[in-house]
């Protein structure tokens, strides 16, 4: 044990005992599922039991077991004072004075420069949201919903009006998804309860752990359909998995994955999360969307017709929109197991940007600035374009590639990446 430290039982915080002094070697030895330590600002914490109750999920915090989690902690916890009350009971001690602040291969110069950049960004007020932006965004969503209903009520329920109405509603839902994304990632107002209520009223669904997983720079989150790493396909080849033709995934994925994501998987998990966690107020607000939808469309289509035609097709289009936009910055990247790099480096390796334009900003909900979104996950999206030049300059200083593509290139690379990984799987399967 470290100098001055006390013997502790794995999984139990060292509350009430003398705080110890530890080396990186000691911290790194506590990286199993039932024994997890991590370091934040040179302080050593035992998060074994807390990981199960962590609001962001146990996978996110557990990923940093045995490592320095300072940069990730700062990125996802804007109110450090509030979080301290949860950290205090978990405190074991601190790193020895002779130990460096960074562990493993992290570049101290990059860590310090990014810390300085974040401080500058905070002084510039770029973490503060502009209420007008969000109210205008909300307004155009409501107008789209009204336009869809007016179209069908005036032109009838034929296939063409229904198709156009579904496209309009899907557009409104997709844009509402970006609004939901904002409230899921950040608090743009000091008291955001009313704003959360407005947001849920508009789109009728909540943020769940799936979105949190999408935004987290941990390569182990990808499923077989997304993986672009040869060793994974060799493992599947050895096991001789025959029930999924992965070498054709670039052809069938978008006929199966996106249609099932929001209409089936997403809706089920949303309701399951709210009910099992007893989020009754959230459930009540979410139900207002469905009540409003059927109130307006059931008299026109009937209950079955409004559910099977307009609603289902709207969700189908929305799901495709969501999948293509969120993955165009991720799947094409050459993601591998994290090599304990600094925060800036690992984010630039795992994502890329799509060129800025008025359409790209609107179409992607500003997620075309995915690099800045990963680096500053609690920053309001309307400020991404302001911080982007500063991030680019920092990358140039340290020789870190800052990748940017056209929208069409980003979308096409999804298909190319799926085909490449499928071919790798087939090769490994045939030549095991």
TrEMBL record:
Entry superkingdom: Eukaryota
Catalytic activity, EC: 1.14.19.44
Membrane topology note: Multi-pass membrane protein
Domain Cytochrome b5 heme-binding residues, every copy: 19-96
Annotated transmembrane regions: 158-179, 252-274, 294-314
Pathway: Lipid metabolism; polyunsaturated fatty acid biosynthesis
Protein name: acyl-CoA (8-3)-desaturase
Organism for this UniProt entry: Astatotilapia calliptera (Eastern happy)
């Amino acid at each position: 044990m470290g100098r001055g430290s006390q013997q502790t039982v794995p999984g139990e915080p060292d509350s009430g005992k003398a705080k110890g002094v530890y080396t990186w070697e000691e911290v790194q030895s506590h990286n199993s599922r039932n024994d997890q330590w991590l370091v934040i600002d040179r302080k050593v914490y035992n998060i074994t039991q807390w990981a199960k109750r962590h609001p962001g999920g146990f996978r996110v915090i557990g990923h940093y077991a045995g490592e320095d989690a300072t940069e990730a902690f700062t990125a996802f916890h804007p109110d450090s004072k509030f979080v301290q009350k949860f950290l205090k009971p978990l405190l074991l001690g601190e790193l020895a004075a002779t130990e460096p602040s960074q562990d493993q291969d992290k570049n101290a110069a990059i860590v310090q420069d990014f810390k300085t950049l974040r401080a500058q960004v905070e002084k510039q007020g770029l973490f503060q949201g502009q209420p007008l932006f969000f109210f205008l965004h909300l307004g155009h969503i409501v107008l789209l919903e009204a336009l869809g209903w007016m179209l069908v009520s005036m032109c009838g329920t034929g296939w063409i009006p229904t198709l156009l109405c579904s496209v309009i509603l899907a557009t409104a839902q997709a844009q509402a998804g970006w609004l939901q994304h904002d409230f899921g990632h950040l608090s743009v107002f000091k008291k955001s309860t009313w704003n959360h209520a407005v947001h849920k009223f508009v789109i009728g669904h909540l943020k769940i752990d799936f979105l949190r997983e999408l935004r987290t720079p941990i390569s182990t989150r990808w499923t077989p359909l997304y993986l672009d790493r040869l060793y994974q396909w060799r493992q599947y080849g050895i096991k001789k998995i025959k029930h999924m033709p992965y070498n054709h995934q670039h052809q069938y994925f978008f006929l199966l994955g996106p249609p099932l994501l929001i209409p089936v998987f997403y809706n089920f998990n949303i309701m399951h999360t709210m009910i099992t966690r007893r989020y009754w107020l959230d459930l009540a607000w979410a139900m207002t969307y469905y009540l409003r939808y059927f109130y307006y469309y059931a008299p026109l289509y009937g209950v079955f017709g409004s559910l099977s035609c307009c609603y289902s097709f709207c969700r189908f289009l929305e799901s495709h929109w969501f999948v293509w936009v969120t993955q165009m910055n991720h799947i094409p990247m050459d993601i591998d197991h994290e090599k304990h790099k600094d925060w800036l480096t690992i984010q630039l390796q795992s994502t890329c940007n799509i060129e800025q334009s008025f359409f790209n900003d609107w179409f992607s909900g500003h997620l075309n600035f995915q690099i800045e979104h990963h680096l500053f996950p609690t920053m309001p999206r309307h400020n991404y374009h302001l911080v982007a030049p500063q991030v680019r300059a920092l990358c140039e200083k340290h020789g870190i590639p800052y990748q940017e593509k056209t929208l069409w290139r980003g979308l096409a690379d999804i298909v190319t990446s799926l085909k490449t990984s499928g071919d790798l799987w087939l090769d490994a399967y045939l030549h095991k």
